[in-house]
Amino acid sequence: MTPLLALLLVAAPVCPPQKLQVARFAPGEVLSFRLDALGADVGTFEVRVRPAPPGEKRAAVELTSRARTSAFVSTNVGHYEAFVTALLAPDFSVLRYHEDVDEGALHRAVQLDFPPVSGALAVQATKNGEPEPFSLAAGSDVRDILSTLYFLRAQPMKPGSPVCLEVYAGRRIWRVLGQIGGRETIDTPLGRMPSVRIDADAVRVDDPKVKRAAHVWVSDDDRRLPLVAVGEVRGKVIRAQLIEATGNGKRRLAEQSQRR
Asked: Among positive and negative, which fits the CA dihedral 226, 153, 195, 198?
């Protein structure tokens, strides 16, 4: 599970279906984030919206992400790098998810096809090339962790509205419950920007004792850029901040500190 996306996990006992449109996220958008723990640089994260690959007739777009630890963390703590892709249909439902993760000398990969069959989500997994498939109980509307970032951006953003979904992340299923908070103007690496806050809590389906809390701020405009996310990852409070956004027919936004 990549650090930024882990911040977005939230939990719910029952999730009603929510149908959203993927069309607002046009191919060409690239978002770059800086990750820090208590102000110390720990890594970077990037997400892209790309056209669906040729031959994927059911897909509207392909989402990709890459996360990696900083040089300092890789040298002194341990190297982590992940590359993820997700195919989305025009109705925002997930079709396929693939993940490659390198953590030190260990390589893990997973691929999932959606939706689940008879309440079971089959996970084609490998560890250093050796098969280790498994399945997870999941509802019909379960989605992957990468598309969850865009799911949150596609919400109506009406304060008080619930956010509810079931998410596959880190080889587990999480139930999701959050709420659209108030509108705030916040300071970010891109400058002072109007935003909408999303407040969330999380629980792992197979172990309710594992819980998470997170706060995410998205820009209060048509792009709904994920500006800042703060939450706990592996026992540490991690903050992700958007430092650059390009594409999608909009002007380039770059970290202000780089232009000073």
From this structure: negative
- pTM for this prediction: 0.85
**Domain of residue 162, residue span:** 3-250+252-256
What is the tens place of the pLDDT at every residue in 175-221? 878 888 989 999 999 999 999 999 887 788 899 888 888 889 999 98
Span 15-70, pLDDT tens digits = 555 556 555 678 899 999 999 987 789 899 999 999 999 999 999 999 999 999 88
β-pairing, 143-144 with 162-169? parallel
Identify residue 141 by its one-letter amino acid code: D
To which residue do tokens 């999303």 refer?
A: 198
Q: What span, in angstroms and rounded, lies between the C-alpha atoms of 199 and 217?
A: 9
Angstrom distance (rounded) from CA 164 to CA 174: 11
Q: Vertex 83, ends 81 and 84: CA angle to 5°?
A: 140
How many domains are contained in the chain?
A: 1
Q: For residues 222 and 240, give the distance between their C-alpha atoms in angstroms, rounded to a whole number.
A: 21
Number of H helices, E strands in the chain: 3, 17
Burial 127-157 (b: 16+ CB within 10 A, else e): eeeeeeeeebebbebbbbbbbbbbbbbbbeb
H or E element in which residue 194 lies: strand 191-204
